[in-house]
Amino acid sequence: MSDKPQSAVALHYDGKNAPKIIAKGHGDLAADIIALAREHGVLIHEDEQLNQLLQRMELGDQIPPELYVLIAELIAFSYVLQGKFPDNWVNIHQKIDFKS
């Protein structure tokens, strides 16, 4: 079995409109998409079912409303992993260590 991903999809979110498909591919192209994302510090989420759904879409398509909550949660989680929080966010449960 190869270490190369079978397929990959890249989304772009401008903060205003629904995220859209900006790249997708299989085999070597998928590996290139992931490598380029890593080079630029883009977080990568591996989910075969989500990937299969997004592969059915065309380049430039916005994600469908049925995926808004899922993608919003992934974006929000990626922000937390990068230490980004809204200005008015309060760590009420003190569960996130800001010193790490």
Automatic annotation (TrEMBL):
Q: Which InterPro entries match?
A: T3SS_substrate_exporter, T3SS_substrate_exporter_C
| Pfam families, per the entry | Bac_export_2 (PF01312)
Keyword terms of this UniProt record = Bacterial flagellum protein export, Protein transport, Transport
- State the source organism's domain of life: Bacteria
Q: What does this protein do?
A: Required for formation of the rod structure in the basal body of the flagellar apparatus. Together with FliI and FliH, may constitute the export apparatus of flagellin.
Family under the similarity heading: Belongs to the type III secretion exporter family.
| Name recorded for this polypeptide | Flagellar biosynthetic protein FlhB
